[in-house]
Amino acid sequence: MNSFHTRLGAEVAAALRDRRPVVALESTIVSHGLPRPDNLRVAREIEQAVRAAGAVPATIGMVGGQLVVGLDDAELTRLASVDGVSKLSVRDLAIAAADGADGATTVAATSAVAAAAGIGVFATGGLGGVHREAATTFDESADLGTLARTPIAVVCAGVKSILDVGATLERLETLGVAVVGYRTRRFPGFYLTDAGFDLDWSVDSPEQVADVLAARDAHGVHGGGLIVANPLPADEQLDPALHDRTLAEGLALLERDGVTGKAVTPYLLAHFHSATEGASLAVNVRIILRNADLAARIAVAAAGRAA
Ligand code: PSU
Ligand code: MN
């Protein structure tokens, strides 16, 4: 009988107990964001990047209705490989648990579960946000609203470039989500180094991010999330002309196929991966590995502070 309690992986439980650095990782990127069979290899590489920088990885997902913080390799393999893994946002968690489902957690769900487990740092690729047709579709990722009320630092390469980036930044401001650029004052565009928008704040080191988190906790005023926007170096980004062409095609196909709701993001990412013949996949992988490394260094700096 499923007790519905969240289960911590043994290594994660030990690290949290001893106040050692832990980095949360999401599983939607594995099940829905990257193509098989690369997804499983990449999922393991992300965990390895966290370990190499001195922290314990906690990949979060749902297996047979049980929410797990720190999936083991068999569980990770299952979420990466079987059909019928649901994409779970925060609102889906209880329903999927009661249903005994297999599910992958989005940025929103991963943030909420990680914070509840006492994990303060999370690495992903690019956040969800406001979709381009949002003025008529109202399609805005639950990632934004969740980050407004969840005390976690998310290291990401900005928001996905398939979105309306300017509108997303406005919504983050309205919602009170803090945003800092990592060694930049320009907001990154996921596959692209620069999405074309200025940022008010930048930080230069993991220690500086740890200072921000310590100040937030000491003040007790703002309990929401911090986005650490970590751009790809310009020579590692997806060729901007190829990017713009592929996106225009993808948006037209979306319309043709009538794709809506939570299928939109996976559909567009899959289009990029096939239309660029793997170029976007390689870029996506580099983004995540760099973010995993930085998140781990932030977690190490923050754990040193708490000790
Ligand atoms: N970043 C990636 N690939 C992904 C995602 C993020 O590099 O697949 C996922 C995250 O789980 C994010 C979700 O929360 O896409 C956003 O989906 P939506 O737009 O439906 O909220
Ligand atoms: Mn959506």
Automatic annotation (TrEMBL):
The keyword Metal-binding belongs to this UniProt entry's keyword annotation: yes
What keywords sit in the KW lines? Glycosidase, Hydrolase, Lyase, Manganese, Metal-binding
Report which reactions are catalysed by this protein: D-ribose 5-phosphate + uracil = psi-UMP + H2O
Q: What are the GO BP annotations of this UniProt entry?
A: nucleobase catabolic process
Question: Would you tell me the Gene Ontology cellular component terms?
Answer: cytoplasm
**Co-factor requirement:** Mn(2+)
Q: Which GO terms describe its molecular function?
A: hydrolase activity, acting on glycosyl bonds; metal ion binding; pseudouridylate synthase activity
Top-rank taxon of the source lineage equals: Bacteria
Query: Which parts of the sequence bind substrate?
Result: K87, V107, S141, A142, D143
> What does the record give as EC number?
4.2.1.70
Q: What Pfam families does this protein's entry cite? A: Indigoidine_A
The cofactor remark states: Binds 1 Mn(2+) ion per subunit.
Q: Which InterPro entries does this one have?
A: Indigdn_synthA-like, PsuG
Q: What is the protein's quaternary organization?
A: Homotrimer.
Q: What does this gene product do?
A: Catalyzes the reversible cleavage of pseudouridine 5'-phosphate (PsiMP) to ribose 5-phosphate and uracil. Functions biologically in the cleavage direction, as part of a pseudouridine degradation pathway.
Tell me the protein family, please: Belongs to the pseudouridine-5'-phosphate glycosidase family.
Q: Would you tell me the protein name for this molecule?
A: Pseudouridine-5'-phosphate glycosidase
UniProt organism field: Micromonospora haikouensis
Q: What is the lineage of its organism?
A: Bacteria, Bacillati, Actinomycetota, Actinomycetes, Micromonosporales
